């Protein structure tokens, strides 16, 4: 029996205000008054026994408890919306789920885990493609996309998957030349060509002046990891991309200098009040698999 269910209207008001960080914007989206949103949030706060927002001048900020609660509320509301939408549509043909994902994320991380998703949802045909272009859902080509960027994406609904935590790595053969941070200036720097500023960000973070001008550029993190493993130089790569290479020793961390880049990973879906159940199934699974990397 479901005995701990808070009022649905209060959850909707909380989710909208938390996502938009504004009671006013939430009231416009829900087509109710500002006072109605505030009242519903107070009802929820009374039910839970703690505050959800810190009220500022023109916007609101989430409390720590609200930050933990929000993803679960969003997932529950989306599941309910998707299930209702699917029942109303009652599709008569097999379901195809079209997903477009960053190349390196697809090759290094997603594909090795997709069998788990397929075993849970054998009725779905997954059409997985790669890309790092701006996604236009109005073309109807994709149900879901995953992108990394430094600002919140526009023109789509989004869920932040994680920050981008980078580690400095190299081949075991190069590690003896990298005993400390200053030694970076004596080896080739392998650069991600679409993010050429990462080394400068890292150097500023660790307090190093870069003087090494010998570089080698590649376009994707997958290529970057292969170049580093071959001994071509040192690279900054998201740890979750190279877990297997770190485990088997083809890449090593010569010294600990972690760095969180300005980039974030987002799951994007069309701007719609509801998603098809096939998309929600993938989102639920992906959030579960990404859980160890989120903070």
TrEMBL record:
Family per record: Belongs to the LysR transcriptional regulatory family.
Keyword Transport listed: no
Source organism superkingdom: Bacteria
Keywords: DNA-binding, Transcription, Transcription regulation
InterPro entries: LysR-type_TF_proteobact-type, LysR_HTH_N, LysR_subst-bd, WH-like_DNA-bd_sf, WH_DNA-bd_sf
Gene Ontology molecular functions: DNA-binding transcription factor activity; sequence-specific DNA binding
Pfam entry (one): LysR_substrate
Entry-linked SUPFAM superfamilies: Periplasmic binding protein-like II, Winged helix' DNA-binding domain
Name this polypeptide is given: Transcriptional regulator, LysR family
The UniProt record lists the keyword Iron: no
HTH lysR-type domain boundaries: 6-63
Record-level GO BP terms: DNA-templated transcription
Extent of the signal sequence: none
């Amino acid at each position: 029996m479901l005995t701990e269910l808070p009022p649905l209207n209060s959850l909707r008001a909380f989710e909208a205000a938390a996502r938009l960080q504004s009671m006013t914007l939430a009231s416009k989206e829900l087509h109710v008054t500002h006072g109605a949103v505030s009242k519903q949030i107070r009802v929820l706060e009374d039910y839970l026994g703690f505050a959800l927002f810190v009220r500022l001048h023109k916007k609101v900020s989430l409390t720590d408890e609200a930050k933990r609660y929000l993803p679960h509320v969003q997932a529950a509301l989306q599941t309910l919306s998707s299930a209702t939408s699917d029942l109303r549509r009652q599709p008569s043909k097999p379901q195809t789920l079209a997903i477009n994902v960053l190349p390196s994320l697809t090759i290094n991380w997603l594909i090795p885990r997709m069998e788990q998703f397929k075993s849970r949802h054998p009725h779905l045909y997954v059409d997985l493609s790669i890309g790092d272009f701006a996604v236009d859902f109005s073309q109807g080509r994709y149900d879901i996309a995953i992108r990394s960027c430094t600002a919140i994406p526009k023109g789509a609904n989004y869920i932040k998957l994680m920050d981008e935590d980078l580690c400095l790595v190299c081949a075991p053969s190069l590690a003896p030349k990298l005993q400390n941070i200053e030694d970076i200036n004596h080896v080739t720097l392998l650069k991600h060509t679409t993010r050429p500023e990462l080394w400068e960000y890292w150097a500023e973070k660790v307090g190093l002046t870069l003087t090494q001008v010998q570089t080698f550029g590649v376009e994707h993190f997958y290529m970057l990891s292969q170049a580093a493993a071959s001994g071509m130089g040192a690279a900054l790569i998201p740890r979750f991309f190279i877990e297997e290479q770190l485990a088997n020793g083809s890449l090593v961390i010569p010294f600990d200098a972690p760095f969180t880049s300005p980039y974030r990973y987002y799951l994007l879906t069309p701007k719609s009040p509801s998603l098809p159940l096939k998309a929600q199934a993938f989102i639920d699974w992906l959030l579960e698999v990404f859980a160890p990397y989120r903070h």
